[in-house]
Specification:
single chain; mainly alpha; Arc Repressor Mutant, subunit A; Tetracycline Repressor, domain 2; 2 domains; 9 helices; globular; disordered N terminus
Length: 193
């Protein structure tokens, strides 16, 4: 079999593998010291291919976080999903099931998110869709008006609790991330004194 790539044919690139390579570079050299060119060189893809999948360096950091939210959304929309905060907590435990390799990469990503205002800000737009989906899930269970203030606040609070707990975990805890996020959601569910 000939492994030669034909001229003009688009490179095949796996965004997950590119993300893993980027995280390894960030871990080795620090986020600020790594360029998109460095990531392209490490992954063996062209700069053009890299930018086809990631708009900027911050997207490399947020990519897996948003992939986790997509898995969460799938878990919440299954017929077997429990309603409300109980369902959200169960779904989060499922999608954050312990995997030492994935947790270490997540720790690097989340530390960067927590330590870099630029990277943190770059991800905020992506959280809007997530917040809306969580708001709809919580509204259905709690009898809240979908699209109303209470549902929006509930979705925003859940998103904030998940992100804050995840960043805190990366910076301060050796526990599984699933346990830390679950504790944060349990606190939110119980109400904040």
């Amino acid at each position: 079999m000939n492994d030669h790539r034909r001229p003009g044919r688009p490179q095949i690139a796996d965004p997950v593998e590119i993300g893993k390579a980027a995280v390894a570079l960030f871990h080795e050299h620090g986020y600020a010291a790594v360029s998109m060119d460095d990531v392209a060189a490490r992954t063996g893809v062209s700069r053009r291919t890299l930018f086809r999948h990631f708009a900027n360096k911050a997207d490399l950091v947020w990519h897996e976080f948003f992939a986790t939210y997509r898995r969460l959304d799938e878990a919440l929309t299954r017929d077997s999903a429990q309603p409300g905060m109980t369902g959200l907590r169960a779904a989060m435990r499922e999608v954050l099931a312990p995997d030492a390799v994935a947790e270490e990469a997540a720790r690097v990503r989340l530390r960067i998110i927590g330590e870099s205002p630029e990277v943190f800000a770059a991800g905020m737009l992506g959280l809007v869709d997530i917040t809306d989906r969580l708001a709809r899930h919580l509204a259905r269970a709690d009898g809240l008006e979908e699209g109303g203030l209470d549902a929006h606040v509930a979705g925003q609070a859940a998103t904030g609790a998940i992100l804050s707990a995840s960043v805190w975990w990366a910076q301060h805890s050796n526990e599984p991330v699933s346990e830390v996020v679950d504790r944060a959601l349990a606190r939110l569910e119980a109400g904040i004194p």
